[in-house]
Amino acid sequence: MVLNMKKNAISVLSLLLILLPISNLRASFEDGLKAAEKDDYKTAFDKWQALAKQGDVNTQATVAVLYHTGQGVKKDYEKAFYWYKKAAEQGNAASQANLGVMYAKGTGIKRDMIQSYAWYSVAAAAHKEKKVGNNLWGIEAVASQLSKTDMEKAKQLAQQYTKKYVAKAKQ
Fold it and tell me: Are 109 and 168 within one domain?
C-alpha cells in the first residue's frame, strides 16, 4: 500500500510538471521531482517551497501535501492549511476539497462546518464538467450537520467562493 501511495504521488507530481509553463519554474520543479523519486523529500520540499512562495499554484498544493503528510518536513497542519488555502484561492480544486476536509475535522484550523460546506461546494463546482458531482466531496455528510440557518449561510458563502475561485481556475 505504501508503495502504491508513493507511485501515485510521483504520478501526480509528474503531471504537475506538465502544467508548469515557465522553464525556470519547470527546472526547479523537476529537481524536486527527481529528489522525491529518490525518497529525498527534504530536498524536494526545499525546491518546491521556493516555487510555492513565488505563487505557483500547483507547487503550493504540493507543499501543502508535504506539510499535511510530514514528508520532507515536520508534519504541520496549520502550514498545510495555509498552503492549501493559497492554492485553493487560485482555483486548485484538490486544495479546495482539502480545505473542506480540514474545516470539517478541525485540522490545522478551528472546526467550521459552514466553511467546510462552502469549500467542498467550490471543489465540486470546479469538477462539474467532469461529472464528478457532490458525492465525491462528501457535501451531504457536512450538510447533515448544519442547521437550516447555517445551511443558508453555507450556500451563500459557497456561491461567493464559486464565483471568485472557480473562475480563477478557468482563466
Answer: yes
Q: Are residues 66 and 110 in the same domain?
A: no
The dihedral sign for the CA sequence 130, 84, 75, 59: positive
pLDDT digits (tens, 9 = 90+) for 84-116: 999 999 999 889 999 999 999 999 999 999 999
14 and 63 fall within a common domain: yes
CB 61 within 8 A of CB 50: no
Rg of the Cα trace of the chain?
16
Measured between alpha carbons, how far is 49 from 120 in angstroms, rounded to an integer?
A: 26
Q: What domain range is 127 assigned to?
A: 92-171
Write out the three cell numbers for 147. 442547521
* Distance, CA of 3 to CA of 16 (rounded, Å): 20
pLDDT score, position 95: 93
0.85 exceeded by pTM: no
For residue 108, give the amino acid letter. Answer: G
